[in-house]
Design goal:
Elements: E1 2-9, E2 41-43, E3 49-51, H1 62-68, E4 77-80, H2 85-99, E5 109-112, H3 115-126, H4 138-153, E6 158-160, H5 170-174, E7 181-182, H6 184-195, E8 206-213, H7 214-219, H8 223-228
Parallel strand pairs: 4-5, 4-6, 6-7
Antiparallel strand pairs: 1-8, 2-3
GO molecular function: amino-acid racemase activity
InterPro entries: Asp/Glu/hydantoin_racemase, Asp/Glu_race
Keywords: Isomerase
Length: about 230
């Protein structure tokens, strides 16, 4: 069920931060949705995500690891997939369309789409967000952390978790991360502030409506970020 909440945003000409990798670089064209690299993913005996031994070397420090990683581009994007492969592909199409405007090559990216994580996130969404902090959902956090670390080692220069429920664990996932990890709520609030929207009635603040599932609203992924603006 979709629900609509409205919040007030005080718009100011001062911008807060930036959005996803505004700087783009030209590359040889390989088609509109070409993925720059492939990695063989495996799981060890404990079920942890690993890569084949020749995919990337052990970490030897950020500078050395970056020079030897799978994606060596300074604007490579790492993406942790969402509740379904279809929703992940939908986001990827938007990323490619946005970054390849004006005839430019799309951003290089690497994606982790794990059906196990998809099911875990779907279960969290069914349990209305806040209950996801129960101990039985620690496995979800561990899975997300594995994906984040894998993307770091693979050469991602920023990481995004564009699916609402994943951002419930943002503080824990981002702890110790060596590259920027974007929060969807912060990105949305920043974009709205940059848009410098004008209120309908002079002298009042802009009112922003949120159209989302009940689980997303209960998780307050967007409300807090909007209120902080």
């Amino acid at each position: 069920m979709k629900m609509i909440h409205s919040y007030t945003l005080s718009c100011s000409p001062n911008l807060v931060g930036g959005t996803l990798m505004r700087q783009r670089t030209h590359y040889a064209t390989k088609g509109p949705c070409a993925i720059k690299s492939s990695i063989l993913l495996q799981k060890d005996e404990d079920g942890k995500l690993t890569a084949s031994s020749d995919s990337f070397p052990p970490s030897t420090g950020n500078a050395a690891a970056a020079s030897l990683s799978v994606l060596g581009h300074s604007n490579a994007v790492g993406i942790i997939g969402g509740v379904s492969a279809a929703s992940t592909l939908s986001f990827l199409q938007k990323l490619v369309d946005w970054s390849s405007r004006e005839g430019r090559e799309s951003l290089p990216f690497i994606v982790c789409n794990d059906p196990t994580l998809n099911r875990e996130l779907s279960s969290c969404e069914r349990n209305l967000g806040k209950s996801c902090f129960l101990p039985e959902y620690d496995v979800v956090l561990e899975n997300l952390l594995q994906k984040r670390k894998f993307l770091e080692r693979s050469g991602a220069r920023c990481i995004i978790t564009p699916f609402h429920i994943s951002n419930l664990w943002y503080e824990k996932i981002s702890e110790g991360c060596t590259v920027p990890l974007f929060h969807v709520g912060e990105c949305m609030a920043s974009e709205l502030k940059e848009a410098d929207l004008k209120p309908i009635e002079a002298g009042s603040n802009c009112k922003i409506g949120i159209l989302a599932t009940e689980a997303t609203l209960k998780a307050e992924i967007y409300q807090e970020k909007l209120q902080n603006q």
